[in-house]
Design brief:
This protein is mainly α and about 190 residues long. It is built from nine helices and no strands.
């Protein structure tokens, strides 16, 4: 799939970038980090405007995030019940909502660029928790802008080592998820 996405980026340019990041932000697992790094490499070669790429990636990601939030917020009880089965139970879904309320804006912000694997779930949980849409939007835009800027800038600076950089960042992202899980488990054990 990576090759197809990169081929779409080279063939269609900015519309492909916008479309792919929008779809990924909704929750479809796509190699967005690689796409943004390659976009940065293309910017270094003068094939794409750096700031235009950052703006499109931010706008596409925010649009997808808003769709996830809307599904959680206004999806209806049938859709919420379907997601509660996916998460395991109604109780687990309520715990997820409580966690989204507790983490609030910083949870949204950091899941945009640091712990990206959690982004779609944070969008859904924020909607289910009825987190303020205005606050969600502000934290979302700030996080997505920073994420697009970081990855596209890394691609621009390290344009000759794109694949190596993608592998390193992919490993780092999963390491951050594991670290977060360890901290949460440690916190739960400490509380008991």
């Amino acid at each position: 799939m990576r090759e197809q996405i990169l081929a779409a980026l080279s063939q269609y340019g900015s519309p492909a970038l916008f479309g792919v990041v929008t779809i990924a932000a909704i929750g479809v697992p796509l190699p967005i980090t690689l796409l943004l790094i390659v976009t940065g490499s293309l910017a270094a070669q003068g094939m794409v405007s750096f700031w235009w790429a950052v703006g499109l990636a931010t706008a596409g990601s925010v649009l997808g995030d808003q769709a996830g939030y809307a599904i959680g917020r206004w999806g209806g009880s049938r859709l919420v019940d379907r997601f509660s089965r996916l998460l395991g139970s109604r109780e687990r879904l309520e715990k997820t909502q409580a966690q989204a309320r507790e983490w609030g804006g910083p949870g949204i912000f950091f899941s945009r660029w640091l712990i990206t694997a959690l982004g779609p779930w944070v969008n859904l949980a924020s909607g289910l928790a009825e987190y303020s849409w205005t606050r969600f939007l502000i934290w979302d835009v700030a996080g997505e802008f920073l994420g697009a800027l970081i990855y596209i800038l890394l691609g621009r600076v390290f344009s000759d080592r794109v694949i190596t950089l993608d592998e390193l960042l992919g490993d780092l992202s999963w390491a951050m998820v594991a670290l977060l899980a360890a901290v949460l488990i440690g916190w739960k054990l400490f509380k008991k």
